[in-house]
Amino acid sequence: MRLLKLIYLNITFYAFYIIFSLVFIPLLTVFIVCCRLILSHRQTMKRLRRVIVWYGTVAIRILPFPLIRVEYKNYARNEGRGPFIFVSNHRSSSDPFLMACPCLFYEAIQVVNIWPFRLPVLGIIAKLAGYLSVREMPFEDFFAKTTKLLREGVSIVVFPEGTRSRDNSVGQFHGAIFRAAIEVKTPIVPLCITGSELIPPIGSMLLRPGVIKIHQLKPLLWEEYAGFSPFKLKNHVRQMIINEVAAMEK
């Protein structure tokens, strides 16, 4: 029975995902061209980023359902209009798609590793939307771009471990995004993910049935971390995530 579920999940998911992408991406292209003809660059980018979030929502919450279920809990309802810096632990290559849950009603971009930009078509769309590859730019450029985006009202999603965990622990955080948070005095929203580590496993594209849990914690406001150094701030947020992940896995 487990083998049949595994086969069924992967055949149906990838078939529907390919069909969905083949329909969605050309429509998105036409939509963005039309927007650019009548709207400013800033307004066009806003719409592009919002549509990408909806694409991720369909891909991760609808196409693999019910064999893969996403349980999302937001402990910070009515947190405001943003922008925010969403900080998440990282267990799977599917985690960027999961960020559609907290970002559904926000304009947001992601800070990613190099590999998402190498994906056919999707990598081009990510670059057009202004997604940032932290490993391909000097710190000064990264700092300038993130602070500019935040001041424009764009939320930023980041996986500060830099790469997915191999043992489900929360690795050490890089501090670049926390320097930007301090500069712009932006609320930081910790995101905690469990269950995605086998969806798919490291080194494989084979999805396995399961339940992915996402907990969105209350924003850490500027008033709560004013006076923190970037080092202290990143470790404070990391500990918040570690504590919640431990509770989720009990």
Keywords summarizing the entry:
globular, alpha/beta, 250 residues, 8 helices, 7-stranded mixed β-sheet
Protein architecture, described:
By secondary structure, this protein is of the alpha/beta class. The chain contains eight helices and seven strands. Helix 4 links the parallel strand 3 and strand 4. Helix 1 runs antiparallel to helix 2.
Written as H for each helix and E for each strand, in order along the chain, the element string is: HHEEHEHEHEHEEHH
How many helical elements?
Answer: 8
Distance between the termini: 27 Å
Secondary-structure content class: alpha/beta
Strand content: 5-15%
Write the layout of secondary structure elements.
Blueprint: H1 2-38, H2 41-62, E1 68-74, E2 85-88, H3 95-98, E3 108-112, H4 122-128, E4 132-133, H5 139-151, E5 155-158, H6 176-184, E6 188-194, E7 210-216, H7 222-225, H8 230-248
Parallel strand pairs: 1-7, 2-5, 2-6, 3-4, 3-5
Antiparallel strand pairs: 6-7
